[in-house]
Amino acid sequence: ELIPVNLVASIKRKRHVQKPRHGLTLEQTNQIFDVVLNGGNDPILDYLIIWTLAETACRSGGLLKIQLGDINTDRNSITIYEKGSTTREQPITEELMNSLIAFAKSRGAKKNEDSVFRYLPDENGFGKPLTARRFDTLWGRIGKELDWVAQKGVSCHWLRHTTLTWVDRAFNQSVARAYAGHSAGNVTDGYTTSTQEEIVEAHAVITGKKPKINH
Contact, 80 vs 70, CB < 8 A? Predict the structure, then answer.
């Protein structure tokens, strides 16, 4: 009884505002891929950024942290480190896996701790690790070609929404939550946690290719 009045109780809670982001259609996603691959000063880098985001549903921050050693060629998977110090193993197609490795090595990555995503190499064949600034440049370029991208303010996170929406529709919310790397929202969620096998199956369905990941 040392504090007779709860001063916090009088503070009104901020009203929750629904975010405008939503999953993109297949046509819209293909339009983005087309624009990315046919313009800019480094279309290969930009294409791999969009491809990785769309296939793994990782956050842009997680993409920047991907190192050469995070790619597991035996399991056709990639380890993603994201906010809240969370870590998840995400299956990827053999095509994406090989493309990321070849790209990283072509730009100077040699050791396991070297970043995969890199800018154009210098005269010594070394490309500096990617920074978040590239995302602003990339979406600015896409927005100039696609009016709806600029109008909606589409960003990397929209691709995460898109992939998770596809997974949710094809499977269920539990699998989509696991694919996203989200923790359980309530007690029931803890009882219905999806397995890695289900994540692999979901990935196979949305990509049309069965990865060789070992359970």
Answer: yes
